[in-house]
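Assemble and predict.
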Amino acid sequence: MDWYAFLFAVEVAVGGLLSGVMYALVAIGFVLIYKTSGVLNFAQGSMVLFAALTFVSLVEHGVPFAGALLLTLAAMTALGFAIERTVLRPLANRSPMTLFMATLGLAYVIEGAAQLIWGTQVHRLDLGISNAPFEVGGIFISTFDLVAAGIAAAMVAILTAFFRFTRTGLSFRAVADDTFAAMAVGLRLNRIQAAVWTAAGAVALVAGLLWGARLGVQFSLSLIVLKALPVLVLGGFDSILGAIVAGLIIGASEKLAEVYLGPFVGGGIEGWFAYAVALVVLLVRPSGLFGKKLVERF
Amino acid sequence: MSDVLLEFDNVSVRYAGAIAALHGVSLKVHKGEIVALLGANGAGKTTLLKAASNLLPAERGQITGGHILFRGRDVTGSSPHDHIRKGLVPVLEGRRLFRSLTIEENLITGAVGRGLRRAAIADGLEQVYTLFPRLRDRRLSVAGLTSGGEQQMAAIGRGLMARPDLFVLDEPSMGLAPLVVAEIFDALTRLNTETGLTILVAEQNSSVALRHAHHATVIENGRSTLSGRASDLAARDDIKASYLGGHAA
């Protein structure tokens, strides 16, 4: 391989890694809720859409950027508490399948509500981040991707610090470990769940802004769930670190596959390559790279 | 006789609407006492203790009859959190530590459950480490990687962090070596005599429990069948044989 071909490969990989950080961001929203409620929250994609749509509509109505951000965050908090009260609490102690079906329904309710409130047209979202590429040692990197990855990384750092150093974070980890014991110790599951859904809402907001700026704010935005699923399978549903590593692997590998394997099969690999990777992982390690091994005892 | 701290009044429990686990159990725990709850596996000891903290709904169980009074107030329907705020603190069967948290983090969750602040947490940690010096050495170890004895000490410590008035322990001797069991019961006795902590402890290991308890109640097939001073019960070999899985079993 000559030097330029090598540089090109690095450039593709770096681009992939940067979008991988954004996959990870979406996946982390799932992980948070999975760890506390043991449920795959199918509505996470709708929450991303809801957040982005609320933000962009507020901005279009003349609300300044920071104000719109705060208002949307407040809306996501309200949504988190409402979901805890109306969906999770009545369904406490039901099977994970029941809860999953509830989040499936919830996804459509949230999408419908967003549509009802803000209308159905596609919105352009400009975060004021330049999309111009810049050069580092012969490699071109998109400014937007780099900034987006930086924001996502900051979000992950904030979450990690929150779970490490606060009492709510400690309670969250306790609940994730052993829900029954957490209840017996006197931790209030309702509050912790509401807090976690709020955190997931905040993650959805950041993901919604970054993806919305990239793809436009429209209803297909909720389909980024489909990008997060293989990341979750690869990293493990209950590991934040897993979501990050898997996001990076999937991001880089799908771009590299598109460029180097694509020509042999007529292209279009990027859409499904992540699923192929996830499938292989499922066969070898059903709980993912970092997931807890579930051992059934009889 | 000193005043009653906890009273089970004719309590019945069913699981998932069908399986009856307790049929009208009555039991009184007086302030400052250690009361042992004895009985074979499956007799209903755990169910009774979970009923006291209202932990049954999480396992699809339900109190179908009777009342549970704590300090004379009916607490049958209070949440587990409210029980802890009032001073009724459970230590679950099988330790149930948070395995991926460190020992110290586990202890802190006990205080957080009671809603205590930073200074109170520091005091509590000091008290627990004085009672179980081994935990101080292991404070930064991940709980899942510590020994059974250390886990039991941490589970008791986690309960103490909530500043209990009544400590409800389920089978603290489970799976532990005799020396460790003795160490744990000695610590409980010391808490009882030095701080006046009232303790209700369910045990299959009846000889150890009777040695440390003031009173004991035997339950069998979901009914309380026998109750009395621990020293009297310990003296009667026939009771050991028929109720406590002693020599005859």
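The mean pLDDT of chain A is 88.
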